[in-house]
From TrEMBL:
Keyword Oxidoreductase: yes
Active-site residues (renumbered): 175
Any one Gene Ontology molecular-function term assigned to this protein's record: NAD binding
Domain 6-phosphogluconate dehydrogenase NADP-binding as annotated: residue spans: 7-166
Entry protein name: 2-hydroxy-3-oxopropionate reductase
Length: 297
């Protein structure tokens, strides 16, 4: 059966990339991976994938190349140059970048790839580590309809809500909006948590009833236990959300959209990072509110 499916190269096996690539293997795809950490390559081979020693080796025979790295500089580093994807992938291959980067980086990548006969989709995701593991990610895509149609079965092995949002860069624009909404939502929840606790209310009971009403959200459902247990093991690191708030504030400025609350939350994320909490989950915005409310954290 797997002979009929496209051969996949996967570059970047981090918190998101590892479980996502494993879901493709489970769906019957042949996956060859490359990443910087040896133990992540071992994890891929243990799951039934093939480890490559370089990007060039990983992409050489691939029909579809998927990248999942932290930010624009990393996408540029793996895509361009003599050892990069564009120089080593075959003409006709489809490059799907699932990283969260600036819309402009995606537009530029698509243009550079076109010269090599390589088609590109930007396809960032939302849903975090849990969504990646459970294959219920929301996938927002920018690019051509025909390429999206070809990639659809692959996306269906990774996520649940899969939408073509417009031309190249559109996926990244929607992802930036997603990160704006998530950060503001977490901040509001964090403020409520500190207010409730200082008022002496049973926090678990309060969050349960709030989550059943209009104040309820996917954010609160996913992060409730982080707040209750002060467990900030990273599903999505503050460092990365800081990068994303930079993307959305910059992109909004370029198009003339005001983000008054987003700008404040971007500063709160930046300050949390400056206090040494950049490696924690973004639900750790709670720590920032606690500090502002006089708690020693």
């Amino acid at each position: 059966m797997s002979n009929a499916l496209p051969k996949i190269a996967w570059i970047g096996l981090g918190i998101m990339g590892s479980p996502m690539s494993e879901n493709l293997i489970k769906a019957g795809y042949e996956v060859t991976g490359y990443t910087l950490e040896r133990e992540k390559l071992d994890r891929l081979t243990a799951a039934g994938g093939t480890a490559a020693a370089s990007i060039a080796e990983a992409v050489r025979d691939a029909d579809v190349i998927i990248t999942m790295v932290p930010a624009s500089p990393q996408v540029e580093a793996i895509a361009y140059g003599p050892d990069g994807i564009l120089e080593n992938a075959r003409s006709g291959a489809l490059l799907i970048d699932m990283s969260s980067i600036t819309p402009q980086t995606s537009v530029d990548l698509a243009a550079a790839a076109r010269d090599k006969g390589i088609r590109v989709l930007d396809a960032p995701v939302s849903g975090g580590e849990a969504g990646a593991i459970e294959a219920v990610l929301s996938i927002m895509v920018g690019g051509e309809q025909a390429d999206f149609d070809q990639a659809k079965p692959i996306f269906e092995a990774l996520g649940k809500t899969i939408v073509l949002c417009g031309p190249h860069g559109s996926g990244q624009t929607v992802k930036a909006a997603n990160q704006l909404i998530v950060a503001v939502n977490i901040q509001a929840c964090a403020e409520a948590v500190v207010f409730l606790e200082k008022s002496g209310v049973d926090l678990k009971a309060a969050l349960d009833v709030l989550n059943g009403g209009l104040a309820g959200s996917t954010v609160l459902t996913r992060k409730k236990d982080n707040f209750l247990n002060r467990d900030f093991k990273p599903g999505f690191r503050i460092d990365l959300h800081h990068k994303d708030m930079g993307i959305v504030t910059d992109a909004a400025r370029n198009v003339g959209a005001a983000l008054p609350v987003g700008a404040v939350v971007a500063q709160l994320v930046a300050s949390l990072r400056a206090q040494g909490d950049g490696g924690l989950d973004h639900s750790a915005l709670l720590r920032s509110v606690e500090r502002l409310s006089g708690a020693q954290v």
